[in-house]
Amino acid sequence: MATHNVADGTGGLDASICFLEETSRPEVRVVTDRYVSSMFIPYTSCSGNDNLVIENCGGPEIAFRGGRIDAGEPNTPGVPEPQQDLDSHVAAFTRQGFTQTEMIKLIACGHSFGGVEHAPFPDIVPEMNDANNTLSVAHFDSTFVHFDNNVATEYISGTTPNPLVVGLNDTTNSDKRIFSSDGNVTMKSFADSPELFASTCADMFARMLDTVPCGVELTEVQVITPLPVKPHNLILRLAGDTLKLAGEIRFWNMTAGAQRTVFMLLDGHAGGTGNATLTSSGVSTAVSGRYGAAWKREQIRNGLNPSRVFLVQVGTVDRIDRQIVVETDIPRPMQPVSAIANYSIWSIELTNENSYFIGAEVDGVKFSGNDDHGAAALGPCTA
User: Fold this and answer.
1) H-helix or E-strand containing 22?
2) Which stretches make up the Plant heme peroxidase family profile domain (predicted)?
3) I want to staple 60 with a disulfide (CB 3.0 to 4.6 A). Which of 202, 214, 237, 252 is the partner?
4) 204 and 238 housed in the same domain
5) What is the pLDDT of residues 241-254, one digit of tens each?
6) d(CA 191, CA 195)
7) Same domain membership, residue 112 and residue 23
8) What is the pLDDT of residues 220-278, one digit of tens each?
C-alpha cells in the first residue's frame, strides 16, 4: 500500500514487493520468520495472507474483494521510515489517500501484532541475549501474537513496551509522534472501547487491502465469503472397470451432529439418477475458533464418456511467479471402442520430466484431479 499514489493511480497492494529491486531498498527491512519486523507490518504483506493472519489471531472479519492483478515491475519507493518526522509521515499517507486521523488508526491496528527486531533495526532495538527471544524482538504490546486493543490501553496508561514509543533514540519514536499528533484523542477512544478498535480496524484493513493501481477493478457486488457448502479435494481415479470420484464436502460453520445424515443426489450426464449417503470425516475450526466446519466424505462410482482428455503441466509460472495453465491434449484412441467395453485407453508419449495433473472434459465442462504424475513414476505401456 505504501507505494500507492492517488494522484496518478500508480502503486498499491499489487505484489510488487516480490521484486528484488524493492526488497533491496533500505526502506523495506523485513525478516521472514515468526515476526515481521518492518515498521509498518501490513504494508509488506499480500492481501489474502493479511486476512488469514489477522482473523486467525483473534482479529475482526475483514471484507475481502477479488480482482487484484500482480505488478509486472517494481513500484516507486515510498515506505515510511521511523526516523522521518511527523510531516513526512502525514504527507506519505496523504499520497496514499489517507487522512492524518486514518494514519493513526492504521498504525495502531497494524501494531496490535509483532514488534521490531534487532537485526534490521539495530539502532532501535539492542541485542537482548535472551534464550527465550533469540531474534531480539521488542514487541509493540504485551499480547503481540493476539489481536486486541492493548496497543492503545498500554500506550494511554504509560506501560507500553512499544520500541517506537519508548525507544532510547527519540528520533525513531515514530509511533509516539503519530499517536500523539491529535492530542491522543484517537488512541484514547481505542483504549476505552475494544469494540470500537476492532470495528475500526476491520474498516481500515479493508481499505488498505483495496488500495490498488488505477485500472484494477475489484469485485463490487459483494465481498468474498465462504460458501455454505463446498466440494473439496475431488479426485477421479480408475478403479477396475469404472472411474471412481472421491472427495469431501465441507459444510461451513456447522457443528458435528451424531444424528445428522447428509444425502447427495446424483444426476448422470448420460441419463439416470441415484443417491449416496455421506459419512462424517471430522470437524475443523477456522478464524481463531470463530467458525466450525463439518466434513462429509463422498465416494461415487460412475462411468464416463469424455470428449477430451488432457494433461495440465504442474508448476509453470511466468517471470513474476504467476501461474500459467499449460494443457496438452491426449489423442483419442485410434481403435474404435466396443459398445460393451468398460473403458478405453488414451495414451501420449512424454519426453520430459515434468509433472502433470490429468484432466477431462465432459459435456463442455472441464475438470482435473489434484494428484500430480511424472513420466518417471508411470510404467511403460505394454501391448
Assistant:
1) helix 20-23
2) 47-250
3) 202
4) no
5) 666 777 778 888 77
6) 10
7) yes
8) 756 677 888 888 777 777 666 666 777 778 888 776 666 677 777 777 666 677 777 77
